[in-house]
């Protein structure tokens, strides 16, 4: 179902969804909570098998009733009683009402478009309702299909600890019970962490190893927070199953352990099937599971790099072509004396936040798609300030001034080529080998693109470099080409070569415009979403290149002044 980024592209993410800090609120989140979702007795929409459910979470934007997608779980095949592994991680504010909507679908194809799948019902609640329930466990009926009992949903909230360690583990097993009539078992492991009320929450599944009683599973990495919420003595239950195609997996047995026990080198566990143990006097076990390796890694954060002195270089490019005469209200570049146009709002919204991470606040601002004075030559890369030798502007206010000045001096003209601009920034990024600088290219466009093939090739090449590309679409156009460049549903490729990382983030500005005309709210919404992926894109580059953050400088200590007293 593709890569991630809930809320815009509709792709089914590969990881748990993390809610970002709420830029529209002045308060600091009281804590982060992790929501786990399970269902019982869902509707069966498939003829020859059971439903293949997925859960989609929606939240309501501040100040209006619009529902926006927050994230999606994985799809679980062939079951009416799913326990979803992927979690939703949200900021919890005691003083705010956070409305939630959980929608359930039976997935029938690989399409990320929810309208292509069968609707199974929905549940409405608030985050406070979940947290305030006994044991922070809310169970409610699923509704939404008249005349049908749609089952129930159980949502559990758990406050997250701040442990940043991850552990890389590998397991194997020996002499597991044979469960298949014509062959050996197809075993896999399911890990659960215990909750404070004695229940268990699923936190990891291994892959299935086919036709063996002595499987060796691939090593996997899991955060200590997900495994035990930072409590080293919390019980971890591991179940062993034999995979079956119809979803009715056969239980082989289970064992319990703890993070502390694993970290101390406890390596072999008896797999116990309680039913067999109760029936057979000479029962010993249903096989053994052995821990082959246990490696602790401390996850570094985006802020670790910022504290260590890493900086962002912010490059700005504006598509000026084919958007009408700036003196006419129908133009997206209309120079309204009373308010910013769409280009100006997008530029200011993103720029004012990211400029705080740029060390010198000097931004090269380029335009493309215009005839330049004095001879009217067409340019796809020109300095907005009119100085090709020094296209740098001081701060976002300087960029805004250069943008409005350029509208008075150049003639807008197509076609629009993206590749030269991406290659321009890529040349700078390629010269930085130590990761000390990261480049962010902001492109604001009306959706027209004339060099799609070349642009895709440029993005694939740039995905190896310390850079990200933000594309903000303005105006009413269809942005299909931009969605393709975004690469969330299908990783972008060129000439058979796929991008190393997802480095493009596209959003249409119209999705963020406040209907009451509150432009401050519109810009805050845009900035929150458009910048959401930059930290993870930055971290993915650093991880791939093995670049660790520099030590943070020591805290400032004021000098000690010795007072001399004259006697």
Describe how the helices and strands are arranged.
Layout: E1 17-18, E2 31-40, E3 53-60, E4 67-72, E5 88-92, E6 99-106, E7 118-126, H1 127-132, E8 137-141, E9 152-159, E10 165-174, E11 187-194, E12 200-205, E13 220-223, H2 224-228, E14 235-242, E15 250-258, H3 259-263, E16 268-270, H4 274-279, E17 288-298, H5 302-307, E18 311-319, H6 342-354, E19 362-368, E20 370-372, E21 377-379, E22 382-383, E23 392-394, H7 395-409, E24 411-412, H8 419-430, E25 437-445, H9 452-462, E26 467-473, H10 480-486, E27 493-494, E28 497-498, E29 504-508, H11 519-530, H12 534-545
Explain this structure to me?
It is a single chain. The strands form 7 sheets. Strands 18, 19, 22, 23, 25, 26 and 29 form a 7-stranded mixed sheet that branches. A 5-stranded mixed sheet has the order 1-5-2-9-8. It has a 4-stranded antiparallel sheet with strand order 4-3-6-7. It is an alpha+beta fold. It is elongated. A hairpin with a 4-residue loop joins β20 and β21 (377-379). The model is unreliable at 1-30 and 555-567 (pLDDT under 50). Helices cover 19% and strands 31% of the residues. α6 crosses α11 (519-530). It folds into 3 domains: 31-160, Sandwich (Immunoglobulin-like), CATH 2.60.40.150; 165-298, Sandwich (Immunoglobulin-like); 312-545, Rossmann fold (3-Layer(aba) Sandwich). The longest helix is centred in the last third of the chain and has 15 residues, at 395-409.
